Every structure is written in structure tokens, then in C-alpha cells.
Amino acid sequence: MEKKSGSKKGLWLGLGVVGVAVAAVMLLHGNGESAKSASGVTTINVGSGNDGQPFGYLDKDGKPAGMDIALIQAIDKKLPQYKFKLVLSDFPTLITNLKSGKTDMALYQIEKNAEREQDFKFGQVGYTVWDTLLATQSATGKLNSFAEAKGKKVYITNATNQATLTDAYLKTHPDAFSVVRGTYTTEQIAQGFKSGQFNVYPAPKYSIDLMNRQFGTNLIAGKSINHSNAYPMFNKSADPKLIAAVNKAMKELKADGTLKDLSEKWLKGDYVPKD
User: Fold this and answer.
1) Is the pTM for the entire model greater than 0.90?
2) Taking a C-beta distance cutoff of 8 angstroms, is the pair 160, 91 a contact?
3) What strands, in cross-sheet order, belong to the sheet with 56-58?
4) What are phi and psi for residue 190, nearest 5 degrees?
5) How far is residue 107 CA from its own chain's centroid?
6) What domains sit in the chain, N to C, each tagged with a CATH number?
7) Under the phi-then-psi rule, with left for phi > 0, alpha for psi from -120 to 50, and beta for the rest, what region is 6?
8) Which of 186, 240, 201, 210 minimizes the C-alpha distance to 128?
């Protein structure tokens, strides 16, 4: 447990091993629903990523790290009535956990879309711009729309907003391009470009910048094909008091510059939404 200064509560994390992969999971109470202790502090199970640098991952010492992890910690410090417990996983599992009630809320660069708004509740304050661009290498050229990707090979991560956008286009243009689907890490996506497995990747600008910095992919992009921000997302049955408290904390963190500081630290730039 990591204690907070000026607080008796802390952010808890349990680690488990599944097969040969290390996954971050929580020591949950019962079915994972929030529970109030004798002291009146309510435990909230919060989902995030375990292998998605720089957002949510385990560092070389096996400790949670990343922008979303740091933001969860910052929110937790502002809410003495709650104690956050981390439940770390890949993105599709994060969505499943939240929908089933194993977690109460999640932060892992989650965008709003019509499908998700049917199943979940969203916070009011966005914390990262996630405008979708079509990343390519110079040999492919800049693409400004899915129509310009005709005949290309497109990679999309399962259960992401980019997957939803891509599938919506393919419904009316089924033969436009081929699709590679998966849950690749940033490094694996970079390798996919280099090997020719695919040549188009719908992604936000900071993800493209990160890949170029870390893996020398030299990706380029045209105009945005969709405007979106990342928000905290909640189980459909989440306590309205929790949602209101998180919204208030997020507004304060945006106003005092914390969101900008976290963005510049982890994403190497100010990607905080202006809207």
C-alpha cells in the first residue's frame, strides 16, 4: 500500500500471474462492488491499463505507472471519502470488467461514442485530446479520410473508438481496405509498420508522436477524421455522488494546471482539451 501525505487512506494494488504473463489485478471484496469501511471510507475499484505506455502500465519494478495511473492517484488524493483500488488489464478486459460491475470506474484514455454511452456513464471533464488521424509512412503518403485509404491495410485495436469508427465506415464501404485487428502494444504496432503487416493506423497525434520518438517509425498524418476527448468512464449503476465527486476533482485538476503538468510529463506535450 502506498500512503498519501495527510491522509490515512491509500491506493491499493494486488499483483497476480496468469500463465506466463504478469497481470495487475485487485484483491476485490465479493463481486467487486464498492464497499464502505467502518471508518466511512468507500472503496472504489478503478480500472486502468497494465501494458499501455505511457498511459497505464507496470514499470521495471512491477509498479503501476503512466499518465492515467497518475491521474487516478491525483483524483484519489482529493476525495478523502473514497479509497481507490486499481484493477489493471488490457483494454478489452477493462471494458468487460466495468460493464460487469467488477470495477466502478475506469481511466485509460477512454473516448465517448454512441455505443459506450448506452452501456456506461461518462465524466464531464475531458483530460486528453483524442482526435483521430490516419498515421502512415511517407511511402503511403498523407491520408485525410478513410476514402483515401482504399486498398490499404489498416490496424485497429479491439474495443477502441478507432475500431468503432473504422467498422462504421466499412459497413457502407465493405471492400474499401483490409483490417488487422488486435491488442498490440505501441512497440508491436511500430513493428507491424516496419514489417509491412499494415500501413495505416487510426490514432491520436500524441500516439503518433510517441511512436516516432521511441521507435523511429517516421509516421506522418493528414487532417483529423474525428474529434474526441478521453474521459473518466463509470459503470452504469455507479453512485451519482461518486460521479459528482470525480467531476469536481477533475475540474479542480484542470483549473490548477495538474492535467497540463501530467500531459507534459507523460505525453511530452500539452494535449489537454480546450473544450
Assistant:
1) no
2) yes
3) 51-52, 56-58, 64-65
4) -60, -40
5) 6
6) 2-127+231-267 (3.40.190.10), 133-221 (3.40.190.10)
7) left
8) 210
Quote the cell numbers at residue 108.
485509460
The model's pLDDT over 146-159, given as tens digits with 9 standing for 90+, comes to: 999 999 999 999 98
Length of the chain: 275
The four Cα atoms 79, 89, 98, 118 give a dihedral, to 10 degrees, of 110
Q: Tell me the per-residue pLDDT of 173-193, one tens digit each, with 9 for 90 and over.
A: 999 999 999 999 989 999 999
Residue identified by cell 490516419 is 134
Question: Which three cell numbers, joined as nine digits, stand for 15?
Answer: 499483483
What cell does 140 get?
Answer: 503511403
Answer yes or no: are the C-beta atoms of 55 and 15 closer than 8 Å: no
Amino acid at 175: D
| DSSP assignment letter at 36 | E
